[in-house]
Structures are given as C-alpha cells and as structure tokens.
C-alpha cells in the first residue's frame, strides 16, 4: 500500500516559532552569532522535516558574520553563501521569520564583503548586518 501525505497536516512553516527559534533570532539580532549558532543547532539537530533548512540557513548566515568580525574573509563568504543557498528556496515567511527580507539583506551584505575583499574587511559597514524580522500574521 502506498502512503500519501496527510492533507490535514500543517505545513511546518505555518507553525508558530518555538522558544528556541525566537531566542536564536534575538541572539542573531543582538549580533551574538556564536550563541545563536548554539541555540539553533540544538533545534536543527532535533528537526527532521524540511524546515530544518531555515534553522541551518540562519545559523550559517550568522556564522558568516562571526567570521567577518574576526577578519576571516574566506570563512565569511563561504558560510554566508551556504546559508543563503538554504534560505533562498524557503517560502517568503516561515515560522514567522520574514525569510525574503533576511535573504535580501544578507545578499546585500555579502555583495559588499566580496567588493571589499580580504584586505579591506575593516571597512565593512556593520549597519548592513541583517536584522531578522518575526511576523505574527500567517504566510
């Protein structure tokens, strides 16, 4: 017998954000990128559904900024690209995270990092670091 998806099942992106996701977003927005990684990694490791890409994408974008703060150009660019690759296919809004806004902001920051190159990272305007928006309305 072939099993089919339960049509009444809730899309994980429509679920309310867990306290861990809310805390990880707060940490990201406070530029506590290491702590954000630790918080969201625990959530990501438990999750088996595709929404885990949201968690890992946020982690990787945050780790990219962590590398940037430490002057690690290659680590910043590589990790941010990986995170963006995970976030781009996501719905515009997932578990209240405004994914499209995060992607647009992170892409702009990444473009500037690449323009600066490894020798001018100190010139990066930190106001380009994204702020993750949580929306309460349904997607």
Mean pLDDT: 92
CATH architecture level-2 label:
Orthogonal Bundle
Amount of helix: 40-55%
Indicate the radius of gyration in whole angstroms.
Answer: 16 Å
Give the name of the CATH superfamily.
TTHA0068-like
For the biggest sheet, the summary is: 2 strands, antiparallel
Unreliable spans are none
**Biggest β-sheet: strands ordered side by side in the sheet:** 1-2
CATH topology: Hyaluronidase domain-like
CATH class: Mainly Alpha
User: How many DSSP-defined strands?
Assistant: 2
In terms of DSSP E residues, the strand content is: under 5%
**Tally of helical runs:** 5
- H and E order: HHHHEEH
CA distance, first residue to last residue: 34 Å
Structurally, how many domains make up the residues?
A: 1
Instruction: Name the structural class.
Output: mainly alpha
Features:
139 residues; mainly alpha; Hyaluronidase domain-like; two-stranded antiparallel ribbon; 3% strand; elongated
Q: What features would you describe in this structure?
A:
By secondary structure, this protein is mainly α. Helices cover 55% and strands 3% of the residues. The protein has helices spanning 19-29, 33-46, 52-69, 73-87, 99-116; strands at residues 93-94, 97-98. It has a two-stranded antiparallel sheet. The longest helix has 18 residues, at 52-69. The model has no long low-confidence stretch (mean pLDDT 92).
């Amino acid at each position: 017998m072939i099993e089919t998806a339960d049509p009444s099942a809730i899309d994980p992106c429509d679920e309310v954000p867990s306290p861990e996701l809310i805390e990880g977003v707060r940490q990201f927005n406070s530029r506590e990128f290491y702590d954000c990684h630790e918080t969201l990694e625990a959530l990501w490791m438990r999750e088996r559904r595709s929404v885990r890409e949201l968690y890992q994408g946020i982690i990787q974008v945050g780790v990219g900024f962590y590398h940037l703060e430490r002057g690690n150009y290659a680590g910043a660019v590589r990790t941010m690209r990986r995170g963006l690759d995970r976030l781009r296919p996501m719905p515009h809004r997932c578990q209240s995270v405004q994914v499209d806004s995060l992607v647009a902001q992170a892409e702009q920051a990444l473009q500037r990092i690449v323009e600066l190159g490894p020798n001018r990272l100190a010139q990066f305007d930190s106001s380009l670091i994204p702020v993750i928006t949580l929306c309460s309305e349904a997607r």
